[in-house]
Amino acid sequence: MNKSIYISIFGLSLSTINDLKNIIYSKFFSQYQIQWTHISDERLQLLLINDDFAEIDHVEKISKSNIQILKLKKNESISGELIDETLYLPIKSPETLYRWIEQALDKMIVPVIAQAPLNLELEEVKRVPKKLSHQSLANAFHNVHEEYAGISHFVIENNQNIVACFDLKNKEFHLNPEFNLIAEGNFAIVPADINTVVKFKKYFQCRELSNGIWQFIWDHAPYDVPNYSSAYKLQHWPQPASLKRRSELLKISAYLSKGCTAEYIHKKTNISANTIHRYLYACDVAQIVEEISAIDSLDAVSVSMPAASQEVSKVRGFFGSLRRKLGL
Fold first, then answer.
1. pTM of the predicted protein model
2. Pairing of strands 32-36, 3-10
3. Could you tell me what percent of the chain has a pLDDT over 70?
């Protein structure tokens, strides 16, 4: 079995990342099992990173480990050249990149994937990411409005790594997809400096603010969330980024757009109560749902319908007996 190497490409446009992946894979797929991963993966061995992000705290920390780091910078006048561990883009010939990777692999011991099954299983258990508490997530977003009135730009930090950046004024949310949240570390939302804002807007995809926050909470909320026992109505439909469970989420959105309780949705769709409460929790943090009176909800309509049907039946019965008496 081929040895496995873990590679992350960080801070570049999607098209550039795909080009680099194709170049690397075409050369090394026959020798190694190439595992594309994120920058915070403990198994990471090779990191190709935009030079603009080379000085962030996480990169400076891992630079002291055995991880081999290649900085990438756009400069067409010297494109393809490797100078002081910086490769200049665009790449005209991949040979320079190939040599750097081969030398990087020679500097370290590449672990073999074929290990004792029991040990591998234990390692995988250790790597299962833990979820942050629902209190810490909700409190962090709540504090944005309570403690930082008048400020528009914020970053989401986890263990001093910047996970996302958002703009309240322009209603923009930029997520760094390379980072996974670490439950054991510190999680906070703090005002952003202008350089971080510029970098995130340049390199990471923009989503509408409420959709971005909803997706962030949905992706990282724990199983254990508050129960939402009242009736609620959507103010804005979230747009799930993934096709996974999309059908269920759209059904929940459809019912909540009319206004109802979680119990009502569960009875009508058989979607698990926890899924519905997690959906409502994400909407609550993103501020796209409002509590409504029970009498204005679909629950009240469904209760009143049988009574109305009985009244109609009584009226029909009265006119039927009247017609019979009159011989009509």
1. 0.60
2. parallel
3. 82
